[in-house]
Design a protein that fits this description.
alpha+beta, 3-stranded antiparallel beta sheet, 130 residues, 2 domains, 11% strand
Length: 130
C-alpha cells in the first residue's frame, strides 16, 4: 500500500481503477471504441483484456431509486466521520471502522481482524441504525 495524501492509502482497487481508465482512454483515442457514457464504458469492458475482473453496470434509475430508499431511513451520525477511512458491516445494523485500510489475510477474506473498532454515535453509544 502506498501513502499519498495525509491519511489516504492507495490499495489494489485504486490500481485497477487507474489501469481500467487508462485502457479505456487508449481505446477511445485509437478509434477502436467510442466511449461517451457509463453504459458505453461498461460495454467496452466486455471486450477488454480483463479476464478476472467483473464489471457491473448500474443504471441511473436504479441509483435514483436507491437514493430515495436511503433518504427515507433514519440513520444516526457516526463520531469522527472525517477521520474514518474504512467501514464494514458487522451484521445487523452494526458497523466497524478503521482510520486506515487493512489488507491482512483476515480482512481480505472477509473475516476482519482485531484492528477494527465498533463505530460510536455522536451521543457516545455504539452505532445502531434505527
Amino acid at each position: 500500500m502506498e501513502l499519498f495524501e495525509s491519511g489516504h492509502g492507495k490499495g489494489p482497487c485504486d490500481d485497477l481503477g487507474g489501469t481500467t481508465k487508462r485502457m479505456a482512454d487508449e481505446a477511445t483515442r485509437s478509434g477502436r471504441h467510442a466511449i461517451s457514457d457509463a453504459f458505453e464504458f461498461f460495454n467496452w469492458t466486455k471486450s477488454s483484456s480483463f479476464k478476472n475482473v467483473t464489471f457491473r453496470y448500474v443504471s441511473f434509475e436504479k441509483c435514483k431509486a436507491k437514493a430515495q430508499t436511503m433518504s427515507e431511513r433514519k440513520v444516526k451520525s457516526v463520531t469522527g466521520t472525517m477521520k474514518i477511512h474504512s467501514i464494514v458491516g458487522n451484521g445487523g445494523s452494526n458497523i466497524l471502522t478503521r482510520y486506515t485500510s487493512c489488507y491482512c489475510s483476515s480482512c481480505l477474506s472477509g473475516t476482519m481482524c482485531d484492528s477494527w473498532t465498533p463505530a460510536k454515535t455522536c451521543d457516545g453509544k455504539v452505532f445502531i441504525q434505527t
